[in-house]
Design brief:
The structure holds 2 protein chains of 2 kinds.
Chain A lengths: L12 H26 L3 H9 L5 H8 L7 E3 L15 E8 L2 E8 L10 H17 L3 E7 L7 H8 L1 H11 L4 E9 L5 H5 L2 E5 L10 H8 L5 H5 L1 H8 L4 E3 L2 H13 L37 H5 L9 E3 L7 E8 L2 E8 L3 E2 L1 H16 L4 E7 L1 E2 L3 H5 L2 H14 L4 E10 H6 L9 E4 L4 E3 L3 H18 L6 H18 L2 H6 L12 H12 L16
Parallel strand pairs in A: 3-4, 4-5, 5-6, 6-7, 10-12, 11-13, 12-14, 14-15, 14-16
Antiparallel strand pairs in A: 1-2, 2-3, 8-9, 9-10
Helix pairs in contact in A: 4-6, 13-15, 17-18
Chain B lengths: L3 E4 L3 H14 L2 E7 L6 H5 L2 E6 L7 H11 L3 E3 L9 H9 L3 E2 L4 H8 L1 H10 L8 E3 L11 E5 L9 E3 L5 H16 L4 E5 L5 E9 L5 E13 L2 E7 L6 H17 L4 E10 L2 E8 L6 H8 L3 H9 L14 E8 L1 E2 L5 E2 L2 E2 L2 E3 L5 E2 L6 E5 L6 E2 L6 E9 L2 H14 L1 E3 L5 H8 L2 H5 L6 H4 L9 H22 L18 E7 L4 E9 L2 E4 L5 E7 L2 E6 L2 E10 L2 E5 L5 E5 L14 E3 L4 E6 L6 E2 L4 E7 L2 E6 L4 E6 L6 E2 L4 E7 L34 H8 L30
Parallel strand pairs in B: 1-2, 1-4, 2-3, 4-5, 20-21
Antiparallel strand pairs in B: 6-9, 7-8, 7-9, 10-11, 10-13, 11-12, 12-15, 13-14, 15-23, 16-17, 18-22, 19-24, 21-23, 25-26, 25-32, 26-27, 28-29, 29-30, 30-31, 31-32, 33-40, 34-36, 34-39, 35-38, 36-37, 38-40
Classes of the chains: A alpha/beta, B alpha+beta.
Protein name (chain B): Acetyl/propionyl-CoA carboxylase subuit alpha
InterPro entries (chain B): ATP-grasp, BC-like_N, Biotin_BS, Biotin_carboxylase_complex, Biotin_carboxylation_dom, Biotin_COase_C, Biotin_lipoyl, CPAse_ATP-bd
Cofactor (chain B): biotin
Chain lengths: 531, 716
């Protein structure tokens, strides 16, 4: 047992101000989440209820096991876009009859549950999580189809939804559609491509073309029920396997279906777990408001891992990156955490070696990001920092164990890549409200533009407009700052959600359990390269 | 000397006799019906003989045969069943066995209430004037009066008449009931003593002419003429009155040459006491006398049967004892007997079972896991407390009862506690109208207690859910990164109301809607500790299929969890005849309004070239007819509805003695008010027929829903 000793002083002024800043950001986060929960607003929620229907989240709450945790994914999707926060669909990981499933539910109170480009990205991300982690995929369907004004962003890429469904099925991952309402035109292929289909009597409506379209196409007079009613599909077309008497019955049937899957997780079962010895509440006071000030990630690790027990690997070498072994909720993990922001050659080599070791023992990796990138400068370039960074990026890219990334603070430059940023396909990636991601810091970026502009002006023999330069720098700085903030990035699906730092242990616990549904991959065919 | 004793009985009295036998070194033989095959009294006996039919406890021939088969040399009848059946006593003696009881002649003499009265008048015992009555022969009597069956007991064939005009009808119905229940329709009328107390004297007579009277018992707390709480001594009896009562009882016993244990029952009114009847057997409530007099009455019974002499002076009473009879019945719903599985039965602080010498004694016929059926008396157990004073005994008994864990069945426990804590009871102001006069059927747990118990049940369930989780079990209960709504649970109370619980665990602890200021101290699947208003209480939670019991100092609460996602229930009116498959109606054999009997063909359906006969499910009236010949019907369609005949008069005359319900038709006599699987409660609720638990069967006051009693002859 190697218990991390803490040097955090929760009574000090530094801690207090960091905590206060974090709480303010969390209040903002709660407000954004509340927007997603509010769906289409009181008017449409009321109308939906008047029809005797359950809300998307109510459906999920009844579907999952009582008192089990539910991790909602991408709740801020579409943040900063023209579409409502949440992108008119709820996705997440929940437990149904003891089986971890990826659940999606259209929110019919938001523009009839219609899909916009963000809905599509969010849904595809959920399907991707189901596929990679081998979790049954349960869709609670009630959607008015594509948002027509943005169809150009949806129609062509949207075909992947149906492709993903059948690929999941081909991979042996069950797909289940519970149809509560409209699922027409392209949407009809959601039940169409699913392994199991439940339709709610007098509510589900599944057809390729509705009565007006049929009239236009063939002149045939028809009605909703005969074209796509639940009774018709259950008795005549056979598209529905189960006819549900009402929404509750559909959810009951959905649970019964999952129960009968006899689903077994392929990965390791977690071992016993002790709570961290240090208070997770103190995670609020660790990250400085100004990310230029480094912080010790061991303070975070000590408040996240089981028993605050962390065996550091190579502690005296490449000290700007902390690596080591721990477990979270009984799942063994290897942790890579930035200590002083900058990655030097030693850190890159240490990371590459550690990642290989984790692959040898098939241990999932957790990346705790707070990096300003790889070191620049003559000495470092000449010392081969590109080769060394490439080694680390190579290791991260080709590692076959599950990766989970938490962006605690800075995530700039190629550090984002080396520390398993979104493009490196971690199984899950979550941000703290204190996170910032960009090619470089806003001030640096503006400064670079200024230097380049000045040099260009000089080369042309022109005088540099200092006044315009100030304005340009301010504008660029503000824009980059805004675009590096977690809500903005989360809105664009560059993470799986912004989380309260105090929930890090819980989120990691759910994700590590989720990845255990898939079997561990074989390690790469070389021995570990000693660095 | 008795070597091997057969107890011709079941339940707690059989166990009670066995306990003394073990102490004396007498081998024990149990008899059992198939319904009792796994009953505790069978397990405890050295030998056990199967009788089969639930009624077989009433079959003298079978019992004597069982004694022969088991090699028993003596028979103890217990109480009820054949205990006061003179021919049975005779048959035992004729078989050359020892009969633990009085001579058959004494039993016969006291068996007829009219004859017994006449004998007592002769012996100088004060008796209420009784007159035999028939509907044609109605003498002018002072009102109010009581019409009673001469051979009766257990309240059957008994009618209170306050208006002369009611008399003929009362006599007629009492006769009918007496004939059905006891095979003897003789009834008589006597003045009704209102506000009187039921006082009885325990006597013990040996075969050498010594008769002891071991003081009195007061049994005034009665419901429907059945005793519920008994005590010794009576708070109304002075030493002088006691001497007078005892002398009278001894006189009565001597008048008929009585041998063995017996009880002389009196009514004590303002104008003195009057002989009611004499019970020629051990009484249910004998333990209170045992506690106060320090004697083992069963042991004395056996010794007297062996010819021993009562030596020395009768013992003197010390202290006070109170007994309650715990019944599986619902006082709030007309004392409806309950059946089902007794899931748990723990009486705290019990220091004696079936024996004297304790402060809290338990004589129980059942143990946890037993199925309490409809065949026999619904008495589960007797609990007896003993103290220096009456107040001490009452307080101890009330507290133990309140803390007793009784799971699976509704009982009269709450009523017993309420009576024991009632000011009138504590002051000793009792009479046989106590329960009619005082509203004591309210549950111990008030509405607020039920609600917080519901919260405890929900939190215990949450804890159990987490513990049983196959994945993510170690993660925080009900954790959400995006909060939309709380966890929820709903329960149906015994009163038929729904308690809805909404809760969430926040970083600050429990947040439960409508429970401001309630904090969670700890939660485990079987125990939840909550603090409310600065007071900390522990709630013991026990969950069974479709049933949750929450026991706490706030009072015991029984809840039926409402299913979150119930299976859809087709709303079908009881008595509906459904089409078993799609088809065409060929014939309708009866018309709407016709009377039909169970099994009578009603409709003939043609399907798949076959004729299918739809027969009536019950006897009654065809109240709804939905189809006509030629009509196409879907599977499950309601073709017709039979309205069951409301009042079911037993068609067959029932043999004398207590009447166990025919196992084949328990329905009309003993409605089962609590569905065996309370899951059905949720289902019923979901179907929209919102009926409180158990209210489905209305109580019919005109037709006493008296359970078949094990002790039939004359508890008053």
């Amino acid at each position: 047992m190697t218990v991390v000793s803490s040097r955090l002083d929760p009574s000090g002024p530094e801690y207090g101000s960091r905590r206060e800043a974090m709480l303010a950001k969390l209040a903002d986060l709660d407000a954004e989440h509340a927007k997603a929960v509010a769906g289409g607003g009181p008017k449409y929620v009321e109308r939906h209820r008047e029809r005797g229907k359950l809300l998307a989240r109510e459906r999920i709450e009844l579907l999952v096991d009582p008192d089990s945790p539910f991790l909602e994914l991408s709740p801020l999707a579409a943040w900063g876009s023209d579409f409502p926060v949440g992108a008119s669909v709820v996705t997440g990981i929940g437990v149904i009859e003891g089986v971890e499933c990826v659940i999606t539910a259209n929110d019919p109170t938001v523009r009839g549950g219609s899909s916009n480009p963000w809905t599509l990205r969010k849904t595809l991300r959920a399907a991707d999580i189901a596929l990679r982690n081998r979790m049954p995929f349960v869709n609670l369907v009630e959607s008015g189809g594509a948002d027509l004004p943005t169809q150009k962003e949806i129609f062509i890429p949207g075909g992947r939804i149906f492709r993903d469904l059948t690929r999941l099925s081909a991979a042996g991952i069950p797909t289940i559609a519970l149809v509560f309402g409209n699922s027409t035109a392209g949407g009809a292929y959601v039940p169409g491509m699913s392994d199991y289909v439940v339709m709610v009597r007098e509510q589900a409506k599944v057809f390729l073309g509705g009565p007006p379209l049929v009239k236009m196409a063939t002149g045939e007079e028809s009605d909703d029920e005969s074209l796509g009613g639940a009774e018709m599909h259950a008795r005549t077309s056979g598209l529905a396997d189960y006819l549900a008497a009402d929404e509750h019955d559909a959810l009951r049937l959905g649970r019964r279906i999952v129960r009968r899957l006899d689903w077994r997780k392929a990965g390791r079962l977690p071992g016993p777990a002790a709570e961290p010895l240090l208070d997770e509440d103190e995670l609020l006071g660790i990250v400085p408001e100004d990310l230029k000030i480094p912080f010790d990630p061991r303070e975070v690790i000590a408040r996240v891992v089981d028993g605050s027990d962390f065996d550091e690997f190579k502690p005296l070498y490449g000290a700007s990156l902390v690596t080591g072994w721990a477990s979270v909720h009984g799942h063994p993990v290897g942790i890579l955490a930035n200590a002083r922001g900058v990655l030097f050659g030693e850190e890159a080599e240490k990371a590459a070696q550690f990642i290989q070791l984790a692959n040898q023992s098939r241990t999932p990796l957790v990346f705790l990001q707070n990096t300003t990138g790889y070191m620049v400068g003559k000495d470092y370039e000449q010392g081969g920092i590109i080769k060394q960074g490439a080694m680390m990026i190579n290791a991260v890219s080709n590692s076959t164990v599950p990766h989970i990334t938490i962006v605690m603070g800075a995530s700039y430059g190629a550090g984002n890549y080396g520390m398993c940023g979104r493009a490196y396909d971690p199984r899950f990636l979550f941000s703290w409200p204190s996170a910032k991601s960009a090619v470089m810091g806003p001030a640096q970026l503006a400064g670079v533009l200024s230097i380049v502009g000045r040099a260009a002006a000089e080369a042309r023999g022109q005088a540099y407009d200092e006044e315009a330069d100030v304005a340009m720098r301010q504008m660029v700085e503000a824009q980059i700052e805004a675009e590096s903030l977690p809500f903005f990035l989360s809105g664009r699906l560059y993470d799986d959600g912004v989380i309260d730092p105090r929930d890090t242990r819980t989120v990691l616990g759910i994700c590590l359990s989720a990845v255990g549904n898939a079997p561990a991959a074989e390690p790469a065919g070389y021995g570990v390269f000693r660095m | 000397m008795i070597r091997r004793l057969l107890v011709a009985n079941r339940g707690e009295i059989a166990r009670r006799v066995f306990r003394t036998c073990r102490e004396l070194g007498v081998e024990t033989v149990a008899v059992y019906s198939d319904a009792d095959a796994s009953a505790p009294h069978v397990a405890e006996a050295d030998h056990a003989v199967r009788l089969g039919d639930p009624r077989a406890y009433l079959d003298p021939g079978r019992i004597v045969e069982a004694a022969r088969q088991s090699g028993a040399d003596a028979v103890h009848p217990g109480y009820g069943f054949l205990s006061e059946n003179a021919p049975f006593a005779q048959a035992v003696l004729d078989a050359g066995l020892t009969w633990v009881g009085p001579a058959p002649e004494a039993i016969a003499a006291m068996g007829s209430k009219i004859e017994a009265k006449a004998m007592m008048i002769e012996a100088g015992v004060p008796v209420l004037a009784g007159v035999t009555v028939t509907p044609d022969e109605l003498p002018a009597l002072d009102l109010p009066l009581l019409v009673k069956a001469s051979a009766g007991g257990g309240g059957r064939g008994m009618r209170v008449v306050r208006d002369a005009a009611e008399l003929p009808a009362a006599v007629e119905s009492a006769q009918r009931e007496a004939l059905a229940a006891f095979g003897d329709g003789t009834v008589f009328a006597e003045p009704l003593l209102e506000g009187a107390r039921h006082i009885e004297v325990q006597i013990l007579a040996d075969s050498h002419g010594t008769v002891w009277a071991l003081g009195e018992r007061e049994c005034s707390i009665q419901r429907r003429h059945q005793k519920v709480i008994e005590e010794a001594p009576s708070p109304a009896v002075s030493p002088e009155l006691r001497r007078e009562l005892c002398d009278t009882a001894i006189r009565a016993a001597k008048a008929i040459g009585y041998v063995g244990a017996g009880t002389v029952e009196f009514l004590l009114g303002e104008n003195g006491f009057f002989f009611l009847e004499m019970n020629t057997r051990l009484q249910v409530e004998h333990p209170v006398t045992e506690c106060v007099y320090g004697v083992d009455l069963v042991r004395l019974q056996l010794e007297i049967a062996e010819g021993a002499q009562l030596a020395g002076l009768p013992p003197s009473p010390v202290g006070h004892a109170i007994e309650v009879r715990l019944y599986a019945e619902d006082p709030a719903r007309g004392w409806l007997p309950q059946s089902g599985v007794l899931r748990r039965f723990d009486v705290p602080e019990v220091d004696a079972e079936f024996r004297l010498g304790g402060r809290l004694r338990l004589d129980s016929g059942v143990v946890a896991g037993d199925e309490v059926g409809v065949h026999y008396d619904p008495m589960l157990a007797k609990i007896i407390s003993y103290g220096e004073t009456r107040a001490e005994a009452a307080r101890r008994l009330a507290s133990a009862l309140a803390r007793t864990k009784i799971h699976g069945l509704t009982t009269n426990r709450d009523l017993l506690v309420s009576v024991l804590r009632h000011p009138d009871f504590l002051s000793g102001a009792l009479d046989t109208g106590f329960l009619d006069r005082n509203a004591v059927t309210a549950p111990l747990a008030d509405a607020a207690a039920v609600r917080i118990s519901g919260l405890a049940a929900a939190l215990a369930q949450a804890s159990a859910n987490r513990a049983a989780a196959r994945v993510l079990g170690g993660l925080p209960s009900g954790w959400r990164n995006v909060v939309s709504r709380p966890q929820s649970a709903a329960f149906l109370t015994e009163g038929g109301e729904t308690v809805e619980i909404a809760y969430r665990f926040t970083r600050g602890g429990l947040a439960a809607e409508g429970f401001d200021g309630v904090t969670l101290v700890s939660a485990a699947p079987d125990r939840v500790v909550l603090e409310s208003g600065g007071l900390r209480h522990a709630f013991d939670v026990a969950a069974y299929p479709g049933l949750v019991h929450v026991d706490s100092p706030l009072g015991p609460v029984r809840l039926a969890p409402v299913e979150r996602l119930p299976e859809p229930v087709e709303q079908v009116v009881p008595g509906s005849l459904l089409a078993p498959m799609p088809g065409t109606v060929l014939r309708v054999e009866v018309e709407q309004g016709d009377t039909v009997t169970a099994g009578q063909p009603v409709i003939v359906l043609e399907a798949m070239k076959m004729e299918h006969q739809i027969v009536s499910s019950a006897s009654g009236t065809l109240s709804v007819l939905n189809v006509a010949p030629g009509r196409q019907v879907e599977a499950g369609a309601v073709l017709a509805v039979i309205e069951e005949a409301a009042e079911q008069v037993p068609a067959d005359p029932v043999p004398p003695g207590p009447v166990p319900v025919d196992p084949a038709s328990p329905g009309p006599v003993l409605p089962d008010p609590v569905p065996a699987e309370p899951a059905a409660v949720g289902a019923v609720e979901a179907a929209g027929t919102v009926e409180p638990v158990g209210a489905a069967e209305p109580v019919e006051p005109a037709q006493p829903v008296e359970p078949p009693v094990a002790e039939p002859a004359g508890e008053q």
